[in-house]
Amino acid sequence: MNTLTMPLRIPADLLVELGEYTGLFWSSMEQEPHICAAIRAYINPAPPVQEAATRSDIGYQWKQLFLPAGTRLRASFRRQHYFASVEGGEILCDGQSVSPSSFANLRGSGNRNAWKAVWLRFPGSPQWVLADECRTLQKAATARLFNADADDEAANTPPAAPQRPAPRPTPASAAADTPAAAARTPAAPGKKKTRRGKRRHQRNHNA
After folding, report:
1. 109-128 pLDDT, tens per residue?
2. Quick one: CA torsion of 109, 110, 113, 118, rounded to 10 degrees?
3. How many Cβ atoms sit within 10 Å of the Cβ of residue 18?
4. Where are the domains of the chain?
5. How would you classify the pairing of strands 129-130 and 119-121?
C-alpha cells in the first residue's frame, strides 16, 4: 500500500478521546489503522437499518377490511363448522390459498355472500364477529376519520371578511328626495302657449 507522508492537524482532545477508546497512547503509531478505519467509515457509511415489518402490518386485505396475520375465519354448512386462518398475506384452508368468497362456498351451493357467511376472530380476541359487522364498523371509523379532517380544515380556514354596509345618504340628498323639495323645484319650461299669447297671435292674423 502506497503511503504519503504529510502533516495533518488533529485536535489534541480528539486524539486523547481516540486513545481512551482504543486503549492506546494518543501519540502512538498504533493509532494509524484506527484513524484510517474512521476515515473509511466516514466516506462509506453503513446503510441505515430498515425496520422489519411488524406482525400487525402483514395480513390479507379484504376490500375495506384488513385481516392481520393470525386472524381465524369460520364458516358452516349444515351446522358443521370449517375454518381457515390468515398466514402471511394469504388465507389458508387445509393448506390451500383461498379467497373469502371461495372459503364461504367451499361447501354448499356456491352462491353464499361471504360477508354474511364468514365469522372472524382477530388475534388476541376470543370473540367471533360476523364479517359484515366488522365491515360496518370499519366504514364508520373511516367516516369519522374523514369528518375529523374536514373539521380541522374548517377550523384552520380564516373567516371571510365582513361586507361593508351601503353608504347612507347625506342630509342634502335626502332633503332633495322629499315631496316638499320636489314641489319647490321649478318646473322645466314647456312648449305650451299661454292664453295671452294665443290672443295676440289671433289679432295679428285678423289684421
Report:
1. 788 999 999 999 999 999 99
2. 90
3. 16
4. 12-43, 55-134
5. antiparallel
